[in-house]
Design brief:
The complex is a heterodimer. Chain A is α+β, with helices and mostly antiparallel strands. Chain A is built from eight helices and eleven strands. In chain A, helix 6 crosses helix 7. The chains are: A alpha+beta, B alpha/beta.
């Protein structure tokens, strides 16, 4: 094996900052705009809406439940966890947001954030005013379509784990989903860092923390993947996809 | 990996200089008091957060000795007062009850080692209390390869105690011998007969200990080839599974006990080298394999098997087959290695006692490894345990360009390459059979802290 054959795994992808001529490499909207053939000036119009914020450090809150909603934000780098606290103060993890994904969509309806968002590692955001985005979208059909797509994806995600699935199926679906999402942004689909703590993963998947480890160890023994500390390598993606199929359906 | 040790007197002579032993990288002198109790709690919590948290290794330091061996560089306290053992034990139990809850219960203990001092300064009943306490607070692996080991001073242990240890789950013993030569024993204040030593070996075997290690030391005062040769013959005939042959490091400015040694009796460098050569020749002829550094093992021993498979590891307790476990050090001066951190308890007994009496974790100093530390630690670990570093794999894991990143290190490595100790072709860094005994020197080329302009004057032991 020589070094050229091995693609480098960036643990904390640092994105290229865009400017009025170029999108950020992880921009949630670049694909929609580019595929619609928007020129530099249209792109410039979009870019002035955005504000790069961060970096947030691990454990920093990006917003809290009940905060007034003004802007949606795309993750440029790092991982964001959203969660709510139930009546007895227990945490319920709602989801994890990776570079290129948009947080705050579920706030549009009530004009207040319905959940908390916390940085799991060093996080940088691209924040944009929702009202102005909506105005621009009315002139850019591609952008509007992308907004609807993001909204429906956000709803679909929550339904993903509601069914009666085995621990193996849940874990496989979770890993396959991460793999797909990293691949979509140009990162390796088979080697990535699990930035969320075991307890967060367990909470999200509605499993015990020990079960998360047991299932991963079994996957490892079966040659599906290897885990070294937080680094995950998927060795047999097709087999993992097979296990995930009933949860992910398509 | 080549498991014979090649002896090359001229080479060893030229490379006999001071250097760290790399039971850790960075080495303990880099630890800082900025790493405190809160930092320890934080790294423990994080270590539970891994998707598959590492298994645990436990080390408990048992510091007391009945009488001082003059060569000793360990942290130990000389006393004949059994009450001190009782007082120490009660605090150690408290330390366990403070530390254990920081680690999730599904993290199995795969290794427990009691070191010293002299662990068998404590009675079998006291040791059982400690082991019971550990079992209450941690979940021990049921796997056959779990190691429960203890260092024994054969002068102060009988067959009944060994049976009691076996009943507690101990399955490995390490016996201190050093040299059977009566003249040497007198010069180092450790008089120990062959008979009592062999009786302990026999008792361990009767009680189904799966592995026995014997420690020897070369370079002691009054030591000569005839006497050390007889010692080697006796030890080889006892057929311990593992053998360690340590070089005596005479550092009287650091270790008080060593000031009692008559320096005029110390063998000179040539004679010392001769003793090492004798040990290697006799052990190799008797079928022992060279594991690395000072360690030898029978071919069927797990260390030899792990060496062949490339799954050997090294930690504060020496070479081990247990890969990535987090090490929890308990007791005075004990070192922990949790996640990417090192930390150490106070070396001073009263400071350790004071922390525990006040309900605080006794963390004296430590360090959180940075990215550079992690890359170098892996490189050094691979050099010492596998004898080969896959450059592409290291580059990928640490996101660096080897040639550029280690440019200065590779310049330092140049003379070692020229001397045939190590080969580097851009794809692999490989320790040659000529270089195996000098792996410390090779590793030192990659030690960032050793080559800082502000580096402290070296206080490490010599290589040979």
């Amino acid at each position: 094996m020589n070094s050229a054959a091995l693609s480098r795994v960036r643990h904390s992808p640092i994105v290229d900052d865009g400017d009025e001529l170029r999108f950020c490499t992880t921009c949630a909207f670049s694909e929609a705009c580019l595929s619609q053939g928007y020129d530099k000036s249209a792109l410039g119009e979009l870019h002035v809406l955005v504000e790069h914020v961060g970096p947030y450090r691990e454990g920093d809150h990006l917003f809290r439940e009940g905060d007034p909603f003004t802007a949606i934000a795309a993750v440029r780098a790092g991982t964001v966890k959203t969660y709510v606290l139930d009546e007895s103060g227990r945490e319920q993890v709602l989801g994890f947001f990776l570079p290129g994904e948009v947080i705050g969509l579920n706030a549009i309806h009530q004009a207040r954030y319905p959940c908390n968002a916390i940085a799991l590692d060093t996080v940088a955001l691209c924040r944009f005013s929702f009202p102005r985005m909506a105005v621009l979208a009315s002139r850019m059909p591609g952008l509007q379509a992308q907004l609807f797509r993001l909204l429906s994806m956000d709803i679909g995600k929550a339904a993903l784990l509601a069914g009666d699935y085995s621990a193996d199926e849940r874990m496989a679906a979770f890993l396959v989903s991460l793999s797909l999402r990293y691949a979509r942004r140009g990162f390796s689909p088979t080697r990535f860092r699990l930035t969320m703590a075991r307890t967060d993963m367990a909470n999200y998947l509605r499993l015990a923390a020990e079960t998360v480890s047991r299932v991963l160890r079994r996957f490892q023994d079966d040659g599906l993947l290897t885990v070294e500390r937080r680094e995950l390598e998927i060795l047999d993606l097709p087999r993992l996809q097979g296990l995930a199929r009933s949860v992910l359906r398509d | 990996m080549n498991t014979t040790a090649r002896f090359d007197a001229d080479l060893l002579r030229r490379y006999d200089r001071q250097g760290p032993r790399y039971t850790s990288y960075p080495t303990a002198p880099q630890f800082s008091e900025a790493f405190d109790e809160d930092a320890y709690r934080d790294v423990a919590r994080r270590s539970n957060d891994d998707p598959i948290p590492r298994r645990l290794s436990l080390y408990a330091h048992m510091p007391f000795c009945q009488s001082p061996c003059f060569y000793c560089g360990c942290n130990r306290i000389i006393t004949r007062d059994p009450a001190r053992a009782e007082a120490y034990l009660s605090r150690l139990v408290r330390e366990v009850s403070m530390v254990a809850p920081l680690f999730d219960r599904d993290r199995d203990v795969v290794q427990l080692h009691l070191g010293g001092g002299t662990p068998n300064f404590f009675t079998a009943a006291q040791l059982r209390e400690l082991v019971d306490c550990l079992h209450r607070h941690f979940h021990f692996s049921e796997r056959a390869d779990r190691d429960i080991s203890i260092e024994l001073d054969p002068r102060f242990v009988d067959a009944d105690s060994i049976a009691a240890l076996a009943a507690m789950g101990f399955n490995r013993a390490s016996l201190g011998v050093q040299d059977f030569d009566p003249q040497v024993q007198a010069a180092v204040n450790r008089v120990q007969s062959v008979e009592q030593t062999l009786a302990v070996v026999a008792a361990c075997r009767q009680n189904a200990f799966s592995s026995i290690n014997i420690d020897l030391i070369y370079g002691l005062p009054g030591q000569n080839a005839a006497g050390f040769g007889r010692t080697l013959d006796i030890v080889i005939a006892a057929r311990p599974d593992r053998l360690a042959v340590y070089s005596y490091a005479h550092l009287p400015q650091m270790f008080k006990a060593q000031r009692q040694i008559d320096e005029t009796l110390l063998p000179d460098a040539e004679r010392k080298l001769g003793l090492l050569q004798l040990a290697i020749e006799k052990l190799t002829a008797a079928g022992y394999q060279y594991i690395g550094m000072d360690h030898f093992a029978l071919p069927a021993d797990e260390l030899s098997v792990a060496l062949e498979r490339g799954s050997l590891h090294r930690n504060f307790m020496g070479y081990t087959t247990h890969a990535e476990s987090d090490l929890i050090g308990l007791g005075v001066s004990a070192i922990s290695h949790i996640g990417d951190s090192y930390s150490q308890n106070p070396r001073d007994l009263s400071l350790w006692e004071h922390a525990i009496d006040n309900g605080r974790l006794p963390v004296w100093r430590g360090m959180q490894m940075g990215r550079d530390d992690l890359a170098r630690a892996e490189l050094i670990q691979r050099l010492m345990c596998q004898g080969v570093v896959d450059i592409a794999a290291l580059e990928s894991r640490h996101d660096l360009d080897f040639g550029a990143y280690f440019r200065a290190d590779l310049v330092r490595l140049h003379p070692l390459v020229a001397d045939g100790l190590v080969e580097y072709d851009g794809e692999e860094l490989r320790v040659t059979s000529r270089g195996r005994m000098l792996v410390r020197n090779i590793a030192a080329c990659f030690d960032h802290y050793l080559h800082q302009p502000t580096a402290q004057p070296l206080r490490y032991s010599r290589v040979i």
